[in-house]
Amino acid sequence: MNNAAALVSLATAVPPHQFHQHEVMEAAREILAPRFPQFETLSTLFSNTGIRHRYGVMPFEWYMERRGWPERTQAYLDGAEALFVDAARKALAEADLAASDIDTIVTVSSTGIATPTLEARVATQMGFRADVSRVPVFGLGCAGGVSGLSIASRLAQARPGTNVLFVTFELCTLAVRHDELTKANIVALSLFGDGAAAAILRAGDGGATQVEATGEKLWPDTLDIMGWRVDPEGFGVIFQRTIPDFVTENMGPAVTEILERMRLAPANVDRFVCHPGGSKVITALERALSLDQGTLDHERDIIADYGNMSAPTVLFVLERARARGLPQRSVLTALGPGFTASCISLRHAA
């Protein structure tokens, strides 16, 4: 019996409010430019991201007012619950399963605080069993889509025949700040959107797409690259280094190192499926992975249509690649706070 975890289903979801990039830029100009002389210089970031539109859990007007922890948290709980249910139900439907068939739930999110955690909050609405195992994970940031899928695959492999539901959702727009007159805040305003993805994994009874291997690399002394700073108003984004430059210099060797531990080489990979942090990061990834410019086409399409949704974004890319037909071997990659590279090798039988 093959005990590799199979990707039984994959689904995505976005909240109802769509924001066009030019609208976000004008709103940011209205609020920040009078107090931040550098805004006009930095405003080119909005047009350089490659983003056309993205989605948010709250109406546009909500973001025009300053918000504190209580309002942000309530918006997170309401929005995340809706996204969780939407994505999870789609994944269950594709797998032809009921919520009561799920044995383990892995929940990944880094953009809000919920105790009890989200899978407990929606358990009755979803119809999960009372004995379902719950594995909530916080803090993986943009790497959470790949790292979370990796965790779910190992849990499925450990108990062949059981159904593991993986759900990741990020409400990045709730971190919008009116008080942060910094380049990092402008970068965040220009990039981030909200979304969710869900997948079901099961080991032991086959499946066209299987998790072949997983791996990570944590760079020492890189805590300052990306993360959250917590203060009385909410989360404040940390971007202390130029991420495209870091990707160009470090991602190629890191992926090669991870692949070697998988007993693979870059030449064995038919397609890379990457977390698209932004247009410059995509270009840097192509350079770092020795790909022709334009190779990461699904990544550019997803960033244009949804923005950077943090953890779920790479699974939006995988969903699109899956719909177009996966090659024999794909490798998912994402970078996140730590600073960490996370990879999964997927083996697909046509």
What does this structure look like?
The chain has helices spanning 21-32, 39-42, 44-48, 69-95, 118-121, 123-126, 144-158, 183-191, 243-261, 279-288, 297-306, 313-324; strands spanning 5-13, 17-20, 53-56, 104-108, 133-137, 164-171, 194-203, 209-218, 226-231, 234-239, 271-274, 329-336, 340-348. The protein has 350 residues and is of the alpha/beta class. The strands form 4 sheets. A 5-stranded mixed β-sheet has the order 1-7-6-4-5, sandwiched between helices. A hairpin with a 3-residue loop joins strand 12 and strand 13. The longest helix is centred in the N-terminal third of the chain and has 27 residues, at 69-95. The two termini are 20 Å apart. The mean pLDDT is 91.
How are the SSEs placed, and which strands pair?
Blueprint: E1 5-13, E2 17-20, H1 21-32, H2 39-42, H3 44-48, E3 53-56, H4 69-95, E4 104-108, H5 118-121, H6 123-126, E5 133-137, H7 144-158, E6 164-171, H8 183-191, E7 194-203, E8 209-218, E9 226-231, E10 234-239, H9 243-261, E11 271-274, H10 279-288, H11 297-306, H12 313-324, E12 329-336, E13 340-348
Parallel strand pairs: 4-5, 4-6, 11-12
Antiparallel strand pairs: 1-7, 2-3, 6-7, 8-13, 9-10, 12-13
Helix pairs in contact: 9-10, 11-12
